[in-house]
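Quick check before the chapter quiz. The format below is the same one you will see on the exam, so make sure you can read both the input and the output lines.
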Amino acid sequence: MPVTSHANVRVIDTADVADSADVGQGSSIWHLAQVREDAVLGDNCVVGRGAYIGTGVRMGDNCKVQNYALVYEPAVLEDGVFVGPAAVLTNDTYPRAINSDGTQKSADDWEAVGVTLRRGAAVGARAVCVAPVTIGRWATVAAGAVVTKDVPDHALVAGVPARRIGWVGTSGHPLSERDGYWVCSETDETYVEIDGELKEVTEQ
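Here is the expected output.
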């Protein structure tokens, strides 16, 4: 579906957007960005300068892919996902340019695997998510981290390889431990940790 089929889509003339890409209304594709064939972007998405959205990538509403980030197929980004500048979502578990016999690899010689970013997740600048991994809802990957295993909802991970160093709320701010609960100073959301997972407490 051509991008012109939706209202208020802004595609800068230096961007390269495939005719078969479906870009939701209110979305913006900035200078030198590339959106490949059959990619689907939801409403009000932003693809920054020089960013790459691979063939068939799926993005929900209100996502932001910042400058020079690389989102390789078959990545899935749910609503409200943030991918920071120069971050990379990989898609090849065993990367090689050639086969064992020295012949050049073709698309038939490997199977793409994707990174999944759940609702509200954020990946910091220059972080790398090594597929196949899932970043949980509202989780945050710190700048420069290398994620090699799944990240739980609300986890804050950092380092190489990335490890959980705390918890974050929907605001992105770190949670503070208080009387056995985890509390957001910005929103007063309250959570309890059970078996390494965070569960929101709706009543106390």
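If your answer matched, good. The radius of gyration is 18 Å.
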